[in-house]
Design a protein that fits this description.
The complex is a heterodimer. Chain A is 34% helix and 15% strand. By secondary structure, chain A is of the alpha/beta class. In chain A, α5 crosses α6 and α5 packs across α11. The two termini of chain A are 22 Å apart. The longest helix of chain B has 18 residues. Chain B is globular, with a radius of gyration of 16 Å. By secondary structure, chain B is α/β, with parallel strands linked by helices. Chain B has a single domain, classed as Rossmann fold (3-Layer(aba) Sandwich), CATH 3.40.50. Chain B has 4 helices and 8 strands, in the order αβαβαββαββββ. Classes of the chains: A alpha/beta, B alpha/beta. Chain A: Pathway: Pyrimidine metabolism; UMP biosynthesis via de novo pathway; (S)-dihydroorotate from bicarbonate: step 2/3.
Amino acid sequence: MRRHLLSAADLSRDDAELVLATAQELRSLADRPIKKLPALRGRTVVNLFFEDSTRTRISFEAAAKRLSADVINFAAKGSSVSKGESLKDTALTLEAMGADAVVCRHWASGAPHRLATAGWSRSCVVNAGDGTHEHPTQALLDAFTLQRHLGTSSGGLDGRRVAIVGDVLHSRVARSNALLLRTLGAEVTLVAPPTLLPYGVESWGVETSYDLDAVLPKTDAVMMLRVQRERMNASYFPTVREYSRRYGLDGRRMAKLAEHAIVMHPGPMVRGMEITADVADSDRSVIVEQVTNGVAVRMAVLYLLLGGSEPAIAGVPEAGGAR
Amino acid sequence: MPAPTPEPEQGTDPEASSSLGRVVLDVAAVNRALTRIAHEVLERNRGAQDVVLLGIPTRGVPLAHRVAARIAEVEDVVVPVGALDVTMYRDDLRMRPARALLPTDIPPGGIDGRTVVLVDDVLYSGRTIRAALDAMNDVGRPAAVQLAVLVDRGHRELPIRADFVGKNLPTSTHEKVAVRLSELDDEAEGVTIR
């Protein structure tokens, strides 16, 4: 049996709720004197990062260590990859070293899927962000944060309205969130200029809008996305100033939100571009809490994939899963 | 998905003995056993100061709350009650699919220097209690640990014994002992053997 978390679409509602419930229990660990559990003792988790990342790598590292796993950090910079080693050879090396799980971040969409399904290794693969494709653990931690603030009496997100705003085109966070939030029963609206909405977005099963001001009053949570200029090879909007005026969240816009609504951002933020400092630091903002929740959610994922004799979530990835 | 916990049989028959097995303790007997355990805890510890009750989920938790309520009736003191999940400390964790975690809830005062009474429904191999002792190690250092169980069915595989026992129940290993509590189960409360 394969054991991977490659896409938020791999998770059924039961799977997702199990991850969130497990994360809920694991979050209380942060309040205990000894922040360690023995579940993954003797297992090896490799953080295989082909792309820069601080929070995701540190978050996975903390999660694995709190579960007593051995952690090996592998960054492409300063490794044999910069000498021209292929993904396959890197995978074979990790396999030979006995990695039980590989947490993979790659600039190429589909790289974790290739790693998981090519038969190069027997480890669990967790997608920690691949190109502009998916970032399932970010979606899980966002869902967890939403549930803590907006959960219905049953703990679900049924009927909750979430707006995802900004550079949807280049955002793996937006795609994973749209998939997962829909699985959990929330209603998602993507808000972006027409140039930054992906081709084929109609098939995502979400609403789209070009008008942030119209969407804000109706939403329970607003998730701001960073404009990913490093992935942009053309001009998608005239000027930064025009972008932030139409799609940035400032204090004036935040005032249009409902009383209970929260402001989220997957980070890293560009203050003054998609979000102003006063919004990011306001008490509506749960951005710092998202980071805390990230560790608990990643612990839950690693525990459910590696903790038992076989994984409790995300079954066999389908052949067409790479998209 | 996690291995399902053994579900009580469906279809509640008024003659509980036929569908759920032979009734060993009925509601009244469970209540009497818990009252006696509460008194024994008080006697052994010369009162209830510094006592903390930690139930092992699932059924140990309501049992711990009931014992605490009885202690409150007798001595007029509020004993802190919590829950201690042992899932990640089980020695068979790797032998089965990953299981869902159950709530752990350590009372605000913690357990350092306290007398912890672990509460569980059935004592069998003793492996759950060993796991609980390990789990407690990561939470604090109690002055003493005692064990209260509703049923001791024998067949220990580790050198562990209970301090307070509701009922000693000689069983064979192929028999199933089921505890049903009004807080968690739809069926009539009691202990059955099948």
